[in-house]
């Protein structure tokens, strides 16, 4: 198999040596982990699957003949590992929003929805260098665009094989021929599945794709700073001013979600005083601005992990807030390098 996104490295005999194998595979660790994350919607499952990929590669190294690229070989193993893992688990995909659930008006009363598996955010510290990791010429999505939380949520709606085909062709830029060699089946069947996957995404995105993410800029940095200040100063009105009129607010693992400044203001007003104060730490998730929020209760002086906020900005305002609240939010802090207290 050829490599659609650049020069390839011959493997040859050195793979028989463990140190040489580790050097060659380490160069692909981050991009393979991101691929597994896109397939699974889970940071923790991606960790396990990339480890499984390297273990399988080591055990099967004698089967690699060196005529293709190490990268293509590893993607073959990783993709099949993901497909097998999806087949084995109880639910086919993770969600960011309960399908078919209308927006909420008023107080949230449902509580955490343990019966759903929720899409997890991805730390920017684990991303491959997006500047150097541009996809192949046949890709439809730019590297930063295909990392967004909303994009990963959208592709979770696809059947597993369609998801894999879309990622290989439209995100990584592999040809239908190369993808057929990896997954099995004919080129025609790959193209057919790809068209179905694109049609499904087209229903989610009227323009056929998510909003393109600009590179971080001063305006976005200022917006993040003002957002953090609003939380730390406990100024709800200041926070609401940062939102677009039609902004959305999701809070996994709760089912409820809100649309529009007025609805978000009304909901936050019901919970804003539950804690005596907040502290914020700037992080990055899915190549988007993000914040870890610590809270101190009225009875406890310790600052404890509370929630992880992923921000989608547009035109100098916040278009969407995804706030991972307890119990899911605090469980994610370690993955983002945030201390437990």
TrEMBL record:
Q: Give the record's keywords alphabetically.
A: Nucleotidyltransferase, Sigma factor, Transcription, Transcription regulation, Transferase
EC primary class = transferase
KW RNA-binding (keyword) present: no
Name the InterPro entries on file: NTF2-like_dom_sf, RNA_pol_sigma-70-like, RNA_pol_sigma-70_dom, RNA_pol_sigma-G_actinobac, RNA_pol_sigma70_r2, RNA_pol_sigma70_r4_t2, RNA_pol_sigma_r2, RNA_pol_sigma_r3/r4-like
The GO terms this record gives for MF are:
DNA-directed RNA polymerase activity
Ranges where the SnoaL-like domain occurs: 225-283
Domain named RNA polymerase sigma factor 70 region 4 type: which ranges?
Answer: 150-201
Provide the RNA polymerase sigma-70 region domain boundaries: 26-90
Enzyme Commission number(s) from the entry: 2.7.7.6
The family this protein is said to belong to: Belongs to the sigma-70 factor family. ECF subfamily.
Q: How does it assemble?
A: Interacts transiently with the RNA polymerase catalytic core formed by RpoA, RpoB, RpoC and RpoZ (2 alpha, 1 beta, 1 beta' and 1 omega subunit) to form the RNA polymerase holoenzyme that can initiate transcription.
Q: Give the protein's recorded name.
A: RNA polymerase subunit sigma-70
Biological source species: Mesorhizobium caraganae
Q: What is the lineage of its organism?
A: Bacteria, Pseudomonadati, Pseudomonadota, Alphaproteobacteria, Hyphomicrobiales
């Amino acid at each position: 198999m050829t490599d659609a996104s650049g020069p390839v490295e011959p493997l040859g005999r050195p793979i028989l040596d463990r140190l040489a194998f580790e050097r060659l595979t380490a160069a692909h660790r981050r991009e393979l982990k991101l691929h597994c994350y896109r397939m699974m919607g889970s940071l923790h499952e991606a960790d396990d699957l990339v480890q499984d990929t390297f273990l399988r590669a080591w055990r099967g190294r004698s089967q690699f003949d060196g005529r293709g690229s190490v990268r293509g070989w590893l993607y073959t193993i990783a993709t099949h590992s993901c497909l097998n893992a999806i087949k084995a688990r109880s639910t086919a995909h993770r969600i960011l929003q309960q399908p078919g659930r209308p927006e909420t008006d008023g107080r949230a009363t449902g509580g955490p929805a343990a019966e759903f598996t929720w899409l997890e955010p991805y730390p920017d510290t684990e991303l491959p260098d997006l500047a150097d990791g541009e996809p192949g010429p046949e890709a439809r999505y730019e590297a930063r665009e295909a990392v967004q939380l909303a994009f990963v949520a959208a592709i979770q709606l696809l059947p597993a094989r369609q998801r894999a085909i879309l990622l290989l062709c439209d995100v990584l830029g592999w040809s239908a021929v190369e993808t057929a060699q990896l997954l099995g089946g004919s080129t025609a069947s790959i193209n057919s599945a790809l068209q179905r996957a694109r049609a499904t995404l087209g229903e989610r995105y009227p323009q056929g794709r998510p909003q393109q993410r600009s590179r971080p800029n001063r305006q976005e940095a200022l917006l993040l700073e003002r957002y953090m200040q609003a939380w730390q100063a406990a100024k709800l009105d200041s926070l609401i001013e940062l939102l677009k009129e039609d902004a959305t607010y999701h809070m996994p693992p709760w089912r409820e979600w809100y649309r529009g400044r007025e609805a978000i203001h009304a909901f936050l007003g019901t919970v804003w005083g539950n804690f005596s104060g907040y502290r914020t730490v700037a992080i990055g998730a899915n190549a988007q601005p993000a914040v870890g929020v610590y809270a101190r209760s009225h009875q406890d002086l310790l600052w404890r992990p509370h929630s992880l906020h992923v921000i989608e900005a547009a035109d100098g305002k916040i278009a969407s807030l995804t706030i991972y609240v307890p119990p899911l939010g605090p469980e994610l802090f370690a993955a983002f390098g945030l201390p437990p207290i």
